[in-house]
Write a structure and sequence with these properties.
With 153 residues, the chain is an alpha/beta fold. It has one domain: 3-Layer(aba) Sandwich (Rossmann fold). It contains 5 helices and 7 strands; from the N terminus they run βαβαββαβαββα. The protein has a 7-stranded parallel β-sheet with strand order 4-3-2-1-5-6-7, with helices on both faces. The radius of gyration is 14 Å and the shape is globular.
Length: 153
Amino acid sequence: MVSKKTSQIAVIGSSDPTAEIVALATAVGRTVASMGAILICGGLGGVMQAAARGAKQAGGLTVGILPDYHKESANPFIDVVISSGLGHARNIVVAASGDLIIALPGSHGTRSEISIALKLSKPVIGVTTWGDTSGVRQIQDIEELKKVLMPFF
């Protein structure tokens, strides 16, 4: 018997977001989980925590790939903790683990994950941002995100 694998979606963004971006990341996480996908993130705070919180609110499964060896550093909404000990290099694992990447506003770490995902030929969706980055499909809101995600399920 062959079973269909569950989609894994990496959500990336700022570790120090504005309240508006926290709300957006929470909605993104809810959307990912409501579509039946596993949410992958860096496991710490900011966008990572907000997206994981949203996924848990919708009954989803979350995976956090930590930069350190201390699983207790994961945010409280992470179900599966991967303590990589890789520091910033864990961004490679985050990007490689998603079947597609949803990028929210962020900085250098987010940009590195986007670059890695594009190098791996993974689809990257920028929510309200990253449209100036070649290869990123920019969208403006959650309703548009749902429409863009539908072909992946």
